[in-house]
Amino acid sequence: MATHASTTPGVLHLKTGQSFTGRSFGAPKSIFAETVFSTSITSYTESMTDPSYRGQILVFTTPLIGNYGVPANTAPFDSQDVGVVLESQGIQCAGVIVADVADRFSHHSAVESLASWCQRHGVPGISGIDTRAVTSLLRDQGTTLGRMAIGADVALNPPAEHEYWDPTAENLVDQVSTKEPYVLNPSGDVSIAVLDFGAKANILRSLVRRGAKVTVLPWNYNFNAVREQYDGLFLSNGPGDPAHCMDAALQLRTTLAEWDRPVFGICMGHQIIGMAAGLDAYRMTFGNRGHNQPVLALASSGSIRAGRVYVTSQNHQYALKLQDPFPGGWEPFFINCNDSSVEGIKSTADSGRKVWGVQFHPESAGGPLDTIEMFTDFVKECREHKASALPLTGRTPMGDRTNIDVTEELPKEAAPQAAQA
Description:
Pfam families: CPSase_sm_chain, GATase. This protein has 421 residues and is of the alpha/beta class.
């Protein structure tokens, strides 16, 4: 039986004047947030724990949500995992809107229902809403500020326009980024720094499973002070407006001008790379959120072949502007087959750099794995650069050092800045 048994009312108010009535589940509290929709048909637990949904009311277009419950969210810290099963330690979205929530669930790894999970994390949900109608509105008028009114608050008048809270006015990245550096898979044979703008766990998992030692740094960390310790730099996904991260883009501009090692960025990280290169970011009407976005490769690189269409997982409101001419040393990498938005950029072959950025999520979680080998390509480039930079006497026949120091710490002079982030 899927239908939720709660009789507590709930209402979704949109700033544009529409209201939708249903029944509440999860935490019995009312909230303001930005209303967005996702067309994904599975992996609701991964979507809800994705830090890129911070400050957002997530509307699922799939009619039934919760039928396979929620798993225990613990995993080991080792060469295969990063401490969690889902994409972060808790629910990141502000609220959930569904057509029908399942009270009864069935899955071998499930330990609780969606309603129980939401209540435990203080996140409200509303079921029984026509999510098709909500989605049609959001497609027509764009992502819209909203209010979830629960219980007694349902009887109150809809908020006035000035009462709605806009989460994009805040630096959401600073809320979800790590405050202190930490290391994953310390025995990895290649050292990669990750600037954490709100990294999904499967990004980190995809790096450590390819043998990398991963050091996760706060989003505004002074990477240039410690960059010589690393064989590559990764910039993660994250929530909100990339304009709040201009400091990171300016630091990265210095990195790209002075540092010749591989750099890879996803989602927010892709936008930061673009801004560092001289491109502008803009707010899309309703963004792309789902697991079925087709992108066309415009150039070949590693496992990617020009002219091929890849199906991708996405979650973003902002994108880079396509301009002609493109900044010197850069070229478009992917373009969206539906709306022609920029889905990737890369350094040109004659630039002397190895830099890639993609708007989509190669690591999926959930979604297709068409582009997962981009992680393999990146780690391979990091290894090759590390091997080429070593003196001949320090290489093994395979190009790696015979003795790798895996206990190297961040310089003491960098520690105070990390503690303040």
